[in-house]
Amino acid sequence: MDLAVTAVRTALNAASHVSPGLAGRAAFRLFRKPRGRSRLRPDERPVMDRAEVGEIAVGGGRAVSYRWGTGERPVLIVHGWESRGSRFATLVSELLDLGLSPIAFDAPGHGEATGETMTILDLRDIIAALDAEHGPFETVVAHSLGVTATFVAVQERGVRTERIVAISGVPDFAYLVDGFCAGLGLRARLNRELRGRIERELFTGEGDIWSRFSVPRTDTGTGAGIRTPGAAGASSFLVVHDEDDDLVDPAASRALHAALNATPGREARLVVTRGLGHRRIIGDRQVVASVRDFVVSGTPARAAAAPDPSPRTAAG
């Protein structure tokens, strides 16, 4: 285990015995801020230099938006935690060649945007603002936490789209907290402290965030059935996940795929890859081709794609 992680785990767990509140505050600070800003890569610059750049006031900062094309047939691209819009440069190029109009952004605390961090509500509101200006979208392509935010935006802001591509989707907000605590080896008491601070300080007055901020799934544990978007939701879905994802369990996307296909009027395809992990998947040429074909056809195949047994290299 990384020495820094070991040191943080030891310090927080020890502090939780003496002062749970103090340890919870420290864990909260680590949880809520990205570890750093990812930088624009040289191979992404030619695509990003062609974009029309704008700003969106949200949360504690200003998001930066990027728009390409004529405005006809808009496709929204939503990045995840510790990522940025430029990571989708390969997909943007493909969509432009097809005559579509991609729209991407950097959320606060990410890429070229201002601010120190973002919440899922910030992502939701950015998506809604771009929908109001450029929508309805033919397709929304989202990655990681962006998948969760996309479904929340559809459910709560009536964002309009015909299709959704969900890549390496985070199943719900609780998954992030549990994964953070598990990664640091934090005690159950610290998990509870962290959840309490998130409710009080990040989402004051927002109600039950743990069930509300979730993607459609079969909730067998609670008997709540299948959570699905409202009437404004899409009817066609492409779900993509890598079997070697070390941040989000591929089972989350399998459950999403099953829940969507079990919902009348909705159809979803599941594509499973290997060797790409959580981040490189979004720039992989074969994944981009699958997304491109789905955007063009709009109708997913019923059978899941077979996993590729060979690792692939890609920008992510």
CATH class of the largest domain: Alpha Beta
Structural category is alpha/beta
What's the assembly state of these chains? single chain
Query: Percent of residues in helical segments?
Result: 25-40%
Q: How many whole angstroms does the radius of gyration measure?
A: 19 Å
**Looking at the structure, what is the overall shape?**
globular
Task: Kindly summarize this structure in a few lines.
The chain is an alpha/beta fold.
Question: What does this entry look like structurally?
Answer:
With 316 residues, the chain is an alpha/beta fold. It has two domains: 3-33 and 187-202, no CATH class; 45-172 and 213-297, Alpha/Beta hydrolase fold, catalytic domain (Rossmann fold, 3-Layer(aba) Sandwich). It has helices at residues 3-18, 20-32, 45-48, 89-97, 120-134, 145-157, 173-184, 188-202, 209-212, 250-261, 285-297, and strands at residues 52-58, 61-67, 74-78, 101-106, 137-143, 161-167, 218-219, 225-226, 236-242, 267-273. Strand 1 (52-58) and strand 2 (61-67) form a beta hairpin.
Please supply descriptive tags for the structure shown above.
10 strands; disordered C terminus; 316 residues; Rossmann fold; 2 domains; 40% helix; two-stranded antiparallel sheet; 11 helices; alpha/beta; 8-stranded mixed beta sheet
